[in-house]
Write a structure and sequence with these properties.
- Pfam families: NfeD_TM.
- Keywords: Membrane, Transmembrane, Transmembrane helix.
- InterPro entries: NA-bd_OB-fold, NfeD2_TM.
- The protein has 181 residues and is an alpha+beta fold.
- It contains 3 helices and 7 strands.
- It has 2 domains: 104 residues, no CATH class; 62 residues, Nucleic acid-binding proteins (OB fold (Dihydrolipoamide Acetyltransferase, E2P)), CATH 2.40.50.
- Helix content is 38%, strand content 22%.
Length: 181
Amino acid sequence: MMTMFLICFFVGLVLTLLITIFGVDSFEMHGDTSGAHGHGQGHIGPSWFNMSSLLAGVTVFGGVGYILNKVGMTSGLLILLFAVAAGLVMAWLFFLLYAKVIYKHDDSMKESDFQLGGQLGKLTVPIIGKGMGEMVYVLQGTTRSISVRSENGESLAKGTKVVILNMSKGVATVTAFSEYD
């Protein structure tokens, strides 16, 4: 049993260090049925089974089991129960840290970041006939620019307010935006 506790402790510790150094925490099991992995639609919040929480639990399980064996606790079942309880508590604490601190500030790109239909902006480079121009727009507090074409091949002057109709191959199709009173 001592060997199992030592293996759990050292494997958990080494993998935790690797995740910390290389920043890989992509092992998330969840019931997302939208077909997309990660934090897309249909998946709200972090997974209960993330790699950091899992490894914290395994590491503490191994460490507590080893320590209880070394201090002279003789009941193998009692050692196992204490080790499992400590591992579960630590995994839960890491999940809370992950959910409340780390995941809360996760600004990973989402599919909705690329759905620009209906986005308003202003031309910074005019569109001449069927040629291309450029527009600027604000998305999530950041000013961005994108190449654009007019919907019907009409020319649009610099400074014209436009709205994106759709995207194709990284170029937005726009039309002049008129404000109605």
